[in-house]
Design goal:
Layout: H1 6-11, E1 17-22, E2 28-36, E3 39-48, H2 55-59
Antiparallel strand pairs: 1-2, 2-3
Length: about 70
């Protein structure tokens, strides 16, 4: 995601914050977007890398853990 989805920004109250990774898949930065009375104020914090979910987690059929009990 290279920019914050508009519906998420619209839900923010004044002084509310949205924290999300922004940027192309391999060069994302963790961003904090603060909604003020004059608009959205962005702050980039640290570089991050998120990997896509795979298997049952991606399909939504996992139980929250990717490991089976032994």
């Amino acid at each position: 995601v290279t920019q914050a989805p508009a519906p998420l920004l619209e839900q923010l109250a004044t002084n509310g914050r949205l924290v999300l990774p922004l940027g192309p898949d391999h060069t994302q930065e963790l961003s904090v977007l603060t909604k003020t009375s004059s608009g959205i104020v962005p702050e980039v914090t640290i570089p991050v890398r998120f990997v896509p979910m795979v298997g049952r987690a991606r399909e939504g059929t996992g139980s929250g853990s990717s490991h089976s009990p032994r």
